[in-house]
Design brief:
By secondary structure, this protein is of the alpha/beta class. Helices cover 35% and strands 18% of the residues. Helix 1 runs parallel beside helix 15.
Length: 740
């Protein structure tokens, strides 16, 4: 029976818990407040990071190589490019020369980028010998032809050619959703094409943005292979401006860089389309800092250019869902980033810093300052007529580009076992003790670079409790513990009534799944999922703690991930600290044996049972139920019917996880502590084959390399996504030495 909160005494050494309302909702809301403050403060933190680099031109030149390497890592610009090669795209009755416009010849071309990936678009040749070269990048929902004079509107790519530039215009992946599915699996989503590629790429340590930056670099490679002396620049609008900014910040070969409709404050990156998400970006790089990396080359951020508008994924298509929210088009109000960028340079340098000029006005993207950066004085431009040309269907070209990126990323996943094996080559398996010691470096990398490490909490725990259960053999208390300002840990503690003074018993921490609460693990259910395993364990005599984890509230909690990622944080950055605070408090309880605290979780709780003990060694064993998987395939594969590519869990993706820690490698961080997997044959989160394949690597480590086969087990049982509570309970008894 439930105990009335009125008159029920709190636990000894705790204050009364008087908080009303839904604690799960309040937990998520508090984390949003924390992240909002962190986003508001990160600009000043970047100022501190950049202070020494901006002290002088010499200091800046010295600092930039390392910063460029870090930026390349965050964008996933890590793959060696193919040898420069450009091909004219033609076919029967379809020459590569599409038209002559304003004295310039426009060809359909492709150029090599990475193995299996090329860029495709247009080459615009000027009338005479080229004076310079340029890459002109349109917004993702524009075609190259729209900026090359084939349509009414902004033909800035053609303008550059008319002024003597040899111009390449690449196709960007757009935000339609026609290709975002797999008809063979009868799976179709409303994920914009850019989000579809982003998801799988992010898990593999790449980004769609990085792929498209590589296409710009490959264009520079080709230009330089043709004439190394000609200066090269990049200019772009909207998403093209984003690509131009990143490319200019990284590649010193780009002598002139101009943006239109992009330069802005990035502290609201979480409101933009998710394909723009970059892990850890804001800790070192805002748009102003990226502009500083272009100095002393010519740079025009186009501060007064209106950005393109996009109202977010189409959500009204029957049977098609899953896309992350996001919009484009918010106007800048005070040009904060422009003022910051200008302030980086002292008056002697500011003459070389182009702030005004350009702009997307009624005549289109202004090119005068961009051409000046290439050493071209802009003469009067010859008028031209929009040609009446039957162009090849752009959707076929776009599909080729989309399919290439998908195939390349799928291959990264298929090759990732070998990549992770090489990454783990230094782990020492000569003994369990040697293994644990050698894993400390990997553990720190996992926490810092993959999960994201919040600072150690310093505020008092300030435990507050209230009794919420009074059963025949046990009582239950709701608990709240402080972590940071507005951030708290909460859960329900279940205590057997037969505890004796001085007696020490093991604790089982029972973790709920997605959209769950601690009570879900305690109450007897109508539909078997948790199998009331918290209740059953306390009735066996264990002390039980059921924490509330913050994956509650659908997009409300998923947006925590969006806010956190650019700060080099994630949802599990908070979950790890919340569990650590819970352990800090549990260890103070008189009947708790601190050396026998186990974690047992289902579904998202199983995800917790993989990640938290990998960092927090005070958990003496871990049981993962309904989640253990070939996790990288689960998140990346487009050939798996239960992949997260088909669902709305856009927060599942963790940057570069595929090259470092699949579930076997997370278990390596738990070893040599006991570890178990609970798997229902009909559990749709994976397949028996996937689970067995990944677990075989765990078994090999424990049984063959560390010679501790009794410390790991797997149970396959007839059933679905649920706690089975049979072999796992025996595993707890064996390794917690309880009940006797």
């Amino acid at each position: 029976m439930n105990a009335s909160s009125r008159g029920a005494e709190p636990l000894p050494n705790t204050k009364p818990l008087t908080e009303a309302g839904n604690l799960a909702e309040k937990q998520v809301a508090g984390m949003h407040k924390y992240l909002d403050r962190a986003l508001a403060a990160v600009r000043k933190e970047r100022d501190a990071v950049w202070k020494d680099a901006l002290a002088s031109e010499k200091a800046l030149a010295k600092a930039l190589p390392a910063k460029r390497e870090r930026l390349k890592k965050l964008l996933g610009v890590v793959d060696p490019r193919s040898e420069p090669n450009l091909e004219y795209v033609s076919g029967p009755g379809r020459p590569s020369l599409l038209a002559e416009i304003g004295g310039c010849k426009v060809h359909a071309v492709r150029w090599a980028v990475l193995p299996g990936i090329d860029a495709e678009g247009l080459l615009i040749e000027p009338k005479g010998a080229p004076k310079a070269c340029a890459i002109a990048v349109s917004h993702s929902d524009q075609t190259p032809e729209q900026i090359a004079g084939f349509a009414k509107g902004d033909a800035f790519a053609l303008q550059l050619a008319q002024h003597g530039c040899r111009v390449l215009v690449p196709v960007l992946i757009d935000r339609k959703d026609d290709l975002s599915g797999n008809p063979k699996l009868n799976r179709q989503t409303n994920l914009p094409h850019r989000e579809f590629v982003y998801r799988m790429a992010y898990e593999m340590g790449r980004t769609l943005t990085g792929y498209e930056v590589q296409k710009v670099f490959a264009a520079v490679d080709w230009f330089k292979s043709q004439d190394a002396k000609l200066p090269v620049g990049v200019i772009g609008y909207g998403d093209g401006g984003m690509i131009a900014l990143y490319a200019g910040a990284i590649d010193e070969r780009l002598a002139s860089v101009q943006l239109a409709g992009y330069f802005n404050e990035r502290e609201k990156l979480h409101q933009e389309p998710i394909d723009r998400n970059v892990w850890g970006l804001l800790t070192e790089f805002g748009d102003a800092e990226l502009g500083a990396m272009i100095h002393p080359r010519w740079f025009n951020p186009g501060l007064h250019d209106e950005p393109p508008k996009w109202t977010g994924p189409v959500s009204s298509k029957p049977g098609r869902a899953g896309a992350a929210p996001g919009t484009l088009g918010e106007m800048r109000k005070d040009f904060v980033e422009g003022h910051r960028y200008r302030s980086f340079f002292d008056p002697k340098l500011r003459n070389d810093v182009i702030i005004e000029g350009g702009g997307l006005i009624e005549h289109g993207v202004g090119t005068e300052s961009f051409l000046s950066g290439l050493g071209i004085k802009q003469p009067d431009r010859a008028p031209f007529r929009t040609p009446e040309v039957k162009l090849p269907a752009p959707e076929h070209r776009h599909k080729r580009q989309f399919d290439q990126l998908v195939s390349y990323t799928q291959k990264l996943w298929r090759d990732s076992d070998a990549t992770r094996k090489a990454y783990w080559a230094k782990a020492d398996a000569r003994s369990p003790a040697a293994w644990e010691k050698s894993c400390d470096t990997y553990r720190d990398y996992f926490h810092t670079e993959v999960i994201g490490k919040l600072p150690e909490p310093t505020m008092p725990l300030n435990p507050r409790t209230r009794q919420v259960y009074d059963e025949k053999t046990w009582t239950g208390y709701e608990v709240v513990l402080d972590c940071y300002e507005d951030v708290f840990a909460t859960g329900v503690l279940l205590l057997p009534k037969d505890l004796k003074p001085g007696e020490k018993r093991p604790v089982v921490v029972c973790q709920h799944g997605l959209e769950g609460t601690p009570r879900d693990t305690i109450e007897v259910e109508k539909r078997l999922v948790y199998n009331h395993f918290s209740r059953r364990l306390v009735e066996l005599g264990y002390i039980v703690y059921a924490p509330q984890n913050p994956y509650y509230g659908k997009n409300t909690f998923r947006q925590l991930q969006r806010k956190a990622n650019p700060l080099k944080l994630s949802l599990f950055s908070f979950i790890i600290r919340q569990h650590q605070r819970s352990l800090d408090w549990l260890e103070t309880l008189p009947n708790v044996d601190p050396k026998r605290i186990a974690l047992y979780g289902l579904s998202y709780g199983g995800k917790t049972a993989m990640r938290v003990p990998a960092v927090e060694k005070r958990y003496c064993l871990s049981i993962c139920s309904g989640d253990f998987n070939e996790w990288i395939g689960k998140t990346v594969s487009v050939d798996l019917d239960r992949s997260y590519m088909w669902t709305g869990e856009y927060e599942m993706y963790e940057f570069d996880l595929g090259n470092t820690f699949n579930y076997a490698e997370m278990t390596y961080l738990i070893a040599p502590r006991p570890f178990m997997v609970e798997r229902g044959h009909d559990d749709g989160v994976g397949t028996d084959e996937m689970v067995a394949y990944e677990y075989a690597k765990v078994r090999h480590l424990y049984a063959n390399r560390l010679k501790i086969p009794d410390r790991t087990a797997i149970e396959f049982f007839p059933g679905g996504h649920q706690i089975n509570a049979k072999d796992t309970f025996a595993f707890l008894t064996k390794h917690l030495d309880y009940p006797k």
